[in-house]
Design brief:
Pathway: Carbohydrate degradation; pentose phosphate pathway; D-ribose 5-phosphate from D-ribulose 5-phosphate (non-oxidative stage): step 1/1. The protein contains six helices and 13 strands. By secondary structure, it is α/β, with parallel strands linked by helices. The strands form three sheets. A six-stranded mixed β-sheet has the order 2-1-3-6-12-13. Bound molecules: ribose-5-phosphate. The site of ribose-5-phosphate has 17 residues, from loops.
């Protein structure tokens, strides 16, 4: 099957990062999203051929867990494997300091827990995700909130940090339900936020009762692999 240019870019990023970071014996956090699917394909190929041995894959979502199981890869979890060697994940936007916005695909809390359990966090993305500053192109921060009091929680967010909260809806206008049984809100931040301190804003949001986690992954990525459809890979590492 021939891939579209964007899919070729995602695959190139996933393969380049995998070749650099995946080794036999590693405990690997496996992120979520369409770019990560190419990481799973890489693991399947390498493990299936015997090139890669004794790995453990720790998924960050139901979907990723299913992909791993369907690929006959050894799946573990943070109960059995609480410490990981590396976590590889996608992102919706990445700034020059490697801060990321994540959660566009609906996964962020389990991703953040798995990322936090890993010694290294590596991001894979097509080069369109590269931004001059956080919030340049991706105009919302996904936030996971508890269903209880969800309207009040959105109001608290708006009162505290401005902008507007939009419930992520699925088919038939049902709320999108996260892997943890919660709701997902896209916080459309005010333009003034992009010039301010995202770490401070993140703390403000996290302090609101009802907020579970945000899609702001600040100061955690060690290396980001950006790729183009032509297979050119730009590797940016933390300074
Ligand atoms: O919610 C999903 C995750 O945070 C993804 O890693 C992120 O949205 C990027 O997904 P994709 O690789 O599909 O662009």
């Amino acid at each position: 099957m021939s891939l579209s240019p964007i899919e070729k870019a995602k695959r190139a990023a996933a393969h380049a990062a995998s070749e650099a970071f995946i080794r036999s014996g590693l405990r690997i956090g496996v992120g979520s999203g369409s770019t990560v699917k190419y990481l799973v394909d890489y693991l399947k190929e390498q493990y299936g051929s015997g090139e890669l041995k004794e790995i453990l894959c720790i998924p960050t979502s139901f979907m990723t867990r299913k992909w791993l199981i369907d690929s006959n890869l050894p799946v573990s979890d943070l109960e059995k494997t609480p410490e990981l060697d590396v976590c590889i994940d996608g992102a919706d936007e990445v700034d020059p300091s490697l801060n990321c916005i994540k959660g566009g695909g609906g996964c962020l809390t389990q991703e953040k827990i798995v990322q936090n359990a890993a010694k290294k966090f590596v991001v894979i993305a097509d080069s369109n995700k590269k931004a001059k500053f956080l919030g340049e192109k991706y105009k919302a921060v996904p936030i996971e909130i508890l269903p209880f009091g969800y309207v009040a929680t959105q109001r608290f967010i708006q009162q505290k940090v401005g902008g507007e909260c939009e419930m992520r809806l699925g088919p038939k206008f049902f709320p999108t339900i996260t892997d943890n049984g919660n709701y997902l809100v896209d916080w459309k931040f005010p333009e003034s936020s992009v010039a301010t301190d995202w770490a401070f804003i993140n703390q403000q949001i996290l302090s609101i009762p009802g907020v579970v986690e945000t899609g702001l992954f600040l100061n955690v990525a060690e290396t980001v692999y950006f790729a183009t459809p032509e297979g050119e890979v730009d590797i940016v590492s933390k300074k």
